[in-house]
Amino acid sequence: MAEYRVPLKDMNYVLFDVLGVDSMWQGSEALAEAVDKDTAQAILEECAKLAENEVAPISREADEIGVTYDQGKVTTAPGFKEAFQAYTEGGWSALGGDPEYGGMGMPKVITALHEEMFCAADISFSLYPGLTAGAALSIAKHGSDALKEKYLPNMYAGTWTGSMCLTEAHAGSDLGMIRTKAVPQEDGSYLVTGNKIFITAGEHDMSENIIHLVLAKLPDAPAGSRGISLFLVPKIHVNDDGSLGEANQVSCGAIEHKMGIHASATCVMNFDGAKGYLVGEINKGLACMFTMMNFERIGVGIQGIGAAERSYQNALEYAKDRIQGRSLSGVKSPDAAADSIMVHGDVRRMLLNMKAFNEGSRALSTYISLQLDYATFASGAEREKGDALAALMTPLAKAFFTDVGFESTVAGQQVFGGHGFIREWGQEQLVRDCRIAQIYEGTNGIQAMDLLARKVAGSKGALMDLWLKDANAYVDSVSDPSLTEFVADLRQALTDLDTVTKNLLLRAADNAEELGSAANDYLHLFGYTAMAFIWLKMAEVSTTNMEQDPAFHQSKLKTARYFFQKLLPRRHALIATIDAGAETLFDIEDDMF
Amino acid sequence: MAEYRVPLKDMNYVLFDVLGVDSMWQGSEALAEAVDKDTAQAILEECAKLAENEVAPISREADEIGVTYDQGKVTTAPGFKEAFQAYTEGGWSALGGDPEYGGMGMPKVITALHEEMFCAADISFSLYPGLTAGAALSIAKHGSDALKEKYLPNMYAGTWTGSMCLTEAHAGSDLGMIRTKAVPQEDGSYLVTGNKIFITAGEHDMSENIIHLVLAKLPDAPAGSRGISLFLVPKIHVNDDGSLGEANQVSCGAIEHKMGIHASATCVMNFDGAKGYLVGEINKGLACMFTMMNFERIGVGIQGIGAAERSYQNALEYAKDRIQGRSLSGVKSPDAAADSIMVHGDVRRMLLNMKAFNEGSRALSTYISLQLDYATFASGAEREKGDALAALMTPLAKAFFTDVGFESTVAGQQVFGGHGFIREWGQEQLVRDCRIAQIYEGTNGIQAMDLLARKVAGSKGALMDLWLKDANAYVDSVSDPSLTEFVADLRQALTDLDTVTKNLLLRAADNAEELGSAANDYLHLFGYTAMAFIWLKMAEVSTTNMEQDPAFHQSKLKTARYFFQKLLPRRHALIATIDAGAETLFDIEDDMF
């Protein structure tokens, strides 16, 4: 396997050249205090060293050995403890944390790129700090001051980690059906009882304590999702002086054996009258979760980017080294027994698909993260718009980046031929590890429904109109005549997306099934269109900056052209299948399947 | 995991209602003697029992335990020996074999459907008899009478198995570079020396002897693929009286650790002056291999169908049982806590994609097998045409059925949500097992080049014209007005494929890279078009036969409509990317990747 190298240059290009995030930072008091361009670059460089040198090298062995379970104790893979210690010593557990409790207060655009590095290095590893950051975010947003003071500093220090306990065996996508109970006690705490499954980092040996956020129902709670509350349940009780007390009634009953992310502890967690503390309001637990979910879901989308970037780097190195066959247009390396497989159109196709998807996803994911930053750090109309675009585009980030990321890891495996199927080369691990990102944190089908039914139809099209207006305004602003080819295609794509949306909403007014039937294709249509939008931005920036670094910017321009000619046309198929409607999906009875 | 049930009804429908293979059998002396409808149905039923009851149930454990290696000895997974014994006792190793040496002489349409069953039951298991049948076929076609007499009866009896030793570490897709040497001996035999990798069933404990077919070069052979010869190298020498003698100089140096097909022994094979016998002519080894390859490659395509069918059956059962969420168009099961996930449009989309692909692939693969049968058993113009269509469509079968099969296993895993990622449910194994079928026996990229460069461009478009003419004639013959919707779409698809082909060949005349750049998309365009052709055939047959079995034939008709409306439109994207040409693939320098 090639050594993983963080694409720092590309990250800086996206942040500062394409999106100009530093000017946004200067407009926010909190951000201006926390970060500037130099600080951000220094942070990314330090994180990159850690990801490259400490985490990436242990990924293969961690996959082979995985997590082990023995009578409630979970042991992480070799090297994980040490790597996590290095991570916390670097201060990275605090990266996005609330400065009032010891966090570094970095914007999502920075934490997201830091996430990409660790996902590329090893998705399993990235989940331990990732879940901790997510749990801490929920506590910071919805917890009482007392809870925040008691728990956040240690979570930011990384001495304690976090978990999110949502799913139960019978309740996954449909959390309204959960059965875990929380019974109020006289001291204001609750006793939580129930069984949770698929709990990432629910139990392990890398931290002194684990802070579980648990969805449960009060005895008198309304049925369904309106009766769900959120509780903080520590693995080990924390005394008032902050020291650790006795063990709580929480145990890990088993770990799952999975297709991939073998080094991630996926736990069955049993709460047997465990003491917990309400986070946020009673019966508003799902809303509290959703605050955090926008951040988490982008993070899962980024797992797709990380795995695909790693796979691309490996595939590119292999393709350059491997000699096999001759170029169709004449021998390229007459002195060698064969040409490098880089000469073959189909190998270039696979590599360029990966390159165009990876760089497009990185830029688009940073653009979406930027909307979250506006929603968090800006004010007034800017904040509202950021909030709206983040709501619209978060399901896109989660599902689209993992779908094209998975496609890319499969392509990166294919470049290796038979060697791609053999474990020692690492390419097959990336396929297996990436696959889960399409499933957890709300399956990609759920994301598609979130996008189309909740966000687009739920706003009567207003959210999509908002994005389309922005995108059209941008297209209209591009005046460089050398970019005409892109401008015309993107303008058409935006018009088509608008038309498809309006027609779909009209049909859905008569038949709600139109939404569920079209959701997946609609999400992809939006994905290709939004990625074309960000590729045009990159093409424009690189055209402007060409002379500064011709090889880099030519590569961007050529990859943009590849995207427009070879990947954006997939939208034609999607439009046709969306327009075909729901009838063929529902006109067949269940027993005819 | 659901119990696997062989879709016998669908197989019979394809064979006799859709393709009317029995009338073809009656026109061939050899086939009329070997098989009729009743015999064929009895064979498929018996094979089905074995696949369902003996092989499918051991697949999960075989994946967990896999093949083990100890100092040259390879031990197969628990139950494999017994299942293989039951298989050989059923006589199935002889199914497609030459009757002169104890084979049953069945046509490919029957052996192919038998292959699907065992692939669905367990791809790893299917490889042991599959490789044996392939090796026996090569010997039967190209071996001397002496070799045939000595080796075929035991291979047909299943007491000996076979392997194909092609790949070397530095020579996979490019076999011209192999280094294995064969030195002629005075007695007419050869001493074979070299190392082969990725040798399926190269060593194991299920048979008394293993007959390796080995590609090697004579000391004075021309360079490249014109200097390759084929040798039969037994693991254990066979005495003139047919008894086993001493061990040959063949050893297994290691087995590979892989993403999937854990129960298939993928061996490093070392030949250290092993005694071998020439098969066919000197320096014509690759041609000998290619005879067999059409049969083998369809077989690998069928692995995709088998895995996808198994995944579909599991996913369908799960979707019917799993309750989660409510229907968009109103509660469907008011007495249950939630509706079955069959109510969700996106779940139906995934299941219908699988159903349309599986049934379409089964029918199309049987149609292609029928062309092979014409090439083998017919004479004159019929034979020539069968030969031409088989040559054209074999790479399609291998690559298209494994590509859509892989997509289907991924969809079948997605239907399970988080449970799809957990090993115990079996869905993730099908993804891992199916994945190899896109890689081995010539990667799907190689298949695409075989189709476009060798077959289509190599015949100056004549082979594609032949198929298009046939398909257009069929479309013109469909007169039922209720089928107009399909007829119009397919006619357009055929016209577009013709136009795309002609334009592509014109461009390729100026720039050969056009072929490699378009090959993958072209193969898929042909695949969707050919599958539409076979779905129209099924729609027509089912419309005619509707009253005999309304539920079955309605299901076919509705699935045909689903295919035309929801899957065939993918061709629009493919046409656009093919028409975009090779420029964006080659206009970027290697160091800009």
From TrEMBL, chains A, B:
It catalyses: 3-(methylsulfanyl)propanoyl-CoA + oxidized [electron-transfer flavoprotein] + H(+) = 3-(methylsulfanyl)acryloyl-CoA + reduced [electron-transfer flavoprotein]. The keyword ATP-binding does not apply. Residues 163-272 form the Acyl-CoA oxidase/dehydrogenase middle domain. The keyword Oxidoreductase applies. Its cofactor is FAD. Signal peptide: none annotated. It comes from the Bacteria. Transmembrane segments: none annotated. Residues 470-588 form the Acetyl-CoA dehydrogenase-like C-terminal domain. One of its GO terms (molecular function) is flavin adenine dinucleotide binding. InterPro entries: Acyl-CoA_dh-like_C_dom, Acyl-CoA_Oxase/DH_mid-dom, Acyl-CoA_Oxase/DH_mid-dom_sf, AcylCo_DH-like_C, AcylCo_DH/oxidase_C, AcylCoA_DH/ox_N, AcylCoA_DH/ox_N_sf, AcylCoA_DH/oxidase_NM_dom_sf. PANTHER family: ACYL-COA DEHYDROGENASE, BROAD-SPECIFICITY LINEAR ACYL-COA DEHYDROGENASE FADE5. Belongs to the acyl-CoA dehydrogenase family. This is 3-methylmercaptopropionyl-CoA dehydrogenase. It comes from Thalassotalea agarivorans.
